Amino acid sequence: MLVSTIELYWLAHNAGRLGLKGTEHVVLDWSAVIERKDRLVASWSQGKDEGIAKLGIAAIHGEASFVGPQEIAVNGKKLTGNKFIIATGSKPARPAIPGAERGITSDELIHLKEQPQRLVVMGGGFIGLEFGFALARAGSKVTILQAGPEIGPALDDDMRKALLDIAKTAGIEIVTNAKIKKLGDDKTVEAEVGGKPHRFPADQVLLATGRPSNVPALEPQNAGIELERSAVKVDSYLQSVSNPNVYAAGDAAGQHQHTPVAWYEGVLAAENAVKGNHRKVDLTVFPNAVFTIPAIAQVGLTEKQARATGASVKVGRLPFSYNPAAGVRDETEGLVKVVYDENTDRVLGVHVIGAGAEDIIQIAAAGMLGGLKRSAFASAHYVFPTLGGAIFDAMSAV
Question: Structural domains in the chain?
């Protein structure tokens, strides 16, 4: 929500190139944006509570913990059940470095009353990238510090390269192989880069170093629930490997930290718990997005993953500058990449960075789910000119 509003501001602020006059004077009212976000979240939460009540499901608000294999305690009351589904989500991690308490998590950043003029982000994963790009587009000076050699480790290599190029135009400083030593009283981050000490001054420091599951707070050991990296260790049916009465979904299952995965796994876990194990988790065709500005979206395998399978891999690439709709909108930054098996013509993965990536990736996902071959994509009719047309054109760019 915050990212979407900032993207609209950024587009409006740069709309002079389209012949729109005065847009360079558009102002981002940070506090008003945060207040609107709070109102929307509150209304959505109320809607969920009302939806549960209409289904006749009793909701007990409180902090629960296991007291036995089939028993929990909440608000001083004990409840027993035949099956339990754990879907307690996750929370931002706070790294064990001196001064970390002076930093803020992503949950805290979205409640700031003032926009920080200088933001240092600890962590170059998806959360760090999303907030880093958003604040940079909003006018903040942003530095992203990544401990490893690459930002966005799960990205396809071509998407990462394109993102790094766009980051430069956005004025974002990205520093890899940064060993963070401490966060000072004035919020200056002290780090070692290339064996030399560096200081990164900031008004706010975002701690984007992962999100551990909330499961440990439930005292799962009392129910004999085995954990793996703080989440419930589950099988392909989302059933606990150590307590057959327990199922888990979403971040509590620890497989993929994406909201749509939690929705999907929640339904699957409930069905398996009530009807018996009959549906396995299948994320073979699972579209996901990183909401940088512009966004990155992907489905299926990266080129590196595809080559590791031994398939006869071929790749098609189409710059966004080749898409007429992107040209009309003056949003030509980006790329569409198609990874497919030359022998079978099967599409193995599609990757997009550019305007509307989070939407147009779903064209590829639907086609892959239906078994559509690359050549069928390439010869399909589509509405012209559209951003989505880039998916079809990329299938021909081999």
Answer: 2-92+213-275 (3.50.50.60), 100-207 (3.50.50.60), 288-396 (3.30.390.30)
What angle, rounded to 10 degrees, do the helices at 389-396 and 357-369 form? 60
pTM (whole model) above 0.90: yes
DSSP assignment of 333-369: --EEEEEEETTT-BEEEEEEEETTHHHHHHHHHHHHH
Q: Give the pLDDT score at 125.
A: 95
By the 8 A CB rule, do 114 and 104 touch?
A: no
Structural contact between residues 59 and 67, judged by C-beta atoms closer than 8 angstroms: no
Question: How many residues would you count in the chain?
Answer: 398
> Distance between CA atoms of 173 and 392, rounded to whole angstroms?
34
- pLDDT of 324 > 90? The answer is yes
Question: How far are the Cα atoms of 26, 346, 348 from residue 373, in angstroms, in the given order?
Answer: 46, 5, 10
196 by DSSP, 3-state: which? strand
List of E strands, 107-172 = 118-122, 141-145
How does pLDDT run across 157-207, given as a tens digit for each residue? 999 999 999 999 999 999 999 999 999 999 999 999 999 999 999 999 999
For residue 258, name the pLDDT band (cuts at 50, 70, 90). Answer: confident
> 319: Cβ–Cβ under 8 A, 6 or more apart, which residues?
332, 334, 335
Question: Comparing 49 with 216, which gets the higher pLDDT?
Answer: 216
Are the C-beta atoms of residues 281 and 119 closer than 8 Å to each other?
no
Within 30-155, residue ranges assigned H as helices are 30-54, 106-109, 126-137
- Specify whether the CB–CB gap between 109 and 206 falls below 8 A: yes
CA–CA distance, 194 with 65 (Å, rounded to integer): 46
pLDDT per residue over 272-287, tens digit each?
Answer: 999 999 999 999 999 9
Burial (Cβ within 10 Å: 0-12, 13-18, ≥19) of residue 91? middle
Structure tokens at 257: 């930290």
